Amino acid sequence: MLVEKRKITKRVDPGKVCIPSGGIETGETPQEAVCREAKEEFGINDVKATYIGNLVYPCSEVDFLVNYFIITEWIGEIEVLEAEQLQWKEIKKENVDIWPDKLIIGAINSQNNNNNNT
Questions:
Q1: HSE (side-chain half, CA atoms, 13 Å) at 95
Q2: Containing H/E element for 34?
Q3: Looking at residue 98, what is its pLDDT?
Q4: 45 vs 62: CA distance, rounded Å
Q5: What is the C-alpha to C-alpha distance for residues 98 and 17, in angstroms, rounded to an integer?
Q6: Full-model pTM
Q7: Which residues lie below 8 Å from residue 31, measured CB to CB, with a gap of 6+?
Q8: Cα–Cα distance between 17 and 88 in angstroms, integer?
Q9: Where residue 92 falls among pLDDT bands split at 50, 70, 90?
Q10: At 118, is the pLDDT very low, low, confident or very high (cuts 50, 70, 90)?
Q11: Which domains are assigned to the chain?
C-alpha cells in the first residue's frame, strides 16, 4: 500500500504516516474525489478505484467521514506533490500512525484471511 508522511504544516495529523486522503468538494461524488485527489497529490490520471468502506474520524475541530478506496490501476508515474514523503509498505496496521487507517487495514486483512480460508 502507498502511505504518506504528512507535512508538519498540515492542519490534520501533521507529521503522521497514514493512507493518503483528501476532501470531497461540493457536488462531487466520493469516486470523483478520489480521482481528483490522485491527480492533485500524485500526478496520476485515469485511476481505477474500488470503494472498500468508510468511517467517521473525530478530530479536534470537526468529525470527518473518511471513504476508503483501493486504487489498482492508473496512468502516469506517482510523484510526491503534497506529502513530505511517499512510501510503499505492506498492508499492516503497524505501518500507519492513525487509528482509522489501522481499523480499515485490519478489516482488509480479515477479509483477505476469510477469502483464503474458503
A1: 16
A2: helix 30-42
A3: 94
A4: 30
A5: 8
A6: 0.86
A7: 49, 51, 69
A8: 12
A9: very high
A10: low
A11: 2-116 (3.90.79.10)
